[in-house]
Amino acid sequence: MSVWIGIDLGTQSVRALAVAGDGRVLGTGSRPLTSHRDGPRHEQDPEQWWRELAAATREALRDVPATERVEGVAVDATSGTVLLTDPSGRPLTPALMYDDRRADASRANEAGALVWERLGYRRMQPNWALPKLLWLLRDAPAGARLAHQSDFVNRRLVGREVATDLSNALKTGVDLIEERWPAEVFDALGVPSGLLPEVVRPGARLGEVCAAAAGETGIPEGTPVVAGTTDGCAAQLGAGAQRVGSWNSVLGTTLVLKGVTKELIDDPLGVVYSHRAPDGSWLPGGASSTGAGALTRDLPGRDLAELSERAAARPPSSAVTYPLVSRGERFPFAAPDAETFTLGEPADDVERYAAILLGAAFVERLCFDYLDLLGAPVDGEIILTGGATRSAYWTQLRADVLGRPVTLRENAEPALGMAVLAGGDPARMIRTRAVIDPSGADLSEPYLAFVTELERRGWLTATAAEHARERSAP
């Protein structure tokens, strides 16, 4: 029997899965990671990544029979996390994590404006990798090398310098259309050409596990090491959203949508930007500032499972809350001054709970309406993942609001996505738990009232609001 290893190198922990060809998880391993935070500073020790990754893979493989063949391994990592190494791969700096905001993006945006515009995201943020690279280079010794989080551990696995993947390189400024570093931008910024790794698509073979790494990780020497992705793209792969028109909607503390298109989507607002898929197609996505985080803020200490049961026994809520977790919206529109509001007057905590869930479902529908406006295909499978899927009431409500069946997976974690990318067959490894059909409830009227309110407040453009109305017409 063949086995694939998927590794999710996150912020709080590293998690490894040993997965059989039919999707059965044969072994798991997890180890905590330590962060050092101080205001805008967020650093980690790269050496700890390797130590804990090795411990996690040994644990994942502990009960896998030695007769089973490990066919491949792939690693995902947090987006925008970088460090500098010496030519041998030893760290010269701590790792600046995905949300470290000490850098200034103005130089990167001035030099790369034309490229960023063409790629669709239009402007880099201070926590993106390229601004952080420029910040690190102020005191860098000659011969320093850039490494993304996954590059650092992949080099340890292979035992030599490795290419980076297009997914992790996105926030470092790689040209995803031409699949190369834009030399004119980096020359203007004074970045030495020898500092940057080569770039390959996710899924490309980087090398094989070397003898030293095999001894530390338990992964057999000679196992193919495959270029991975960011953690967000890994979760999309694990959910099985890999066909054009299919979408993975992740609803936890906040809402994130990721899908698949043949062509690069051009968004004039820049709230949707795309990664490159292993097969060369595009993975557009956007992240809203709304989600389940509003529940813990607005209903502190309440038993949410009990509220869900009680809400399910009542008629649909007549109130709806726009459930921003923090001030400002990022998707499906950009409105830095947006704030939470409620239409109607909830009578008790059950109605307050239902109003928040309904508002989150309305934002999700509006995201699809906006994607359709941009020309993205949205007629494929919709796969729901994230903590919100634990509520059967909320899942049914989302199917009703979308007016579409929604799919739930048995397992959709990023590490599974990496096992698939390492060479597993997604048709066999990704298992469906349930498909939830709409109940027939018509929620178009309250949805359009919600859209109208967003437009009235000046946050949603008239064009986007009108398109939502057109898509809701009988």
From TrEMBL:
SUPFAM superfamilies: Actin-like ATPase domain. Residues 250-423 form the Carbohydrate kinase FGGY C-terminal domain. Residues 35-46 have a biased composition (Basic and acidic residues). InterPro entries: ATPase_NBD, Carb_kinase_FGGY, FGGY_C, FGGY_Carb_Kinase, FGGY_N. Gene3D superfamilies: 3.30.420.40. Residues 25-46 are annotated as: Disordered. Signal peptide: none annotated. GO terms for biological process: D-xylose metabolic process. GO terms for molecular function: kinase activity. It comes from the Bacteria. CDD domains: ASKHA_NBD_FGGY_SePSK_AtXK1-like (cd07783). Keywords: Carbohydrate metabolism, Kinase, Transferase, Xylose metabolism. Belongs to the FGGY kinase family. This is Sugar (Pentulose or hexulose) kinase. It comes from Nonomuraea solani.
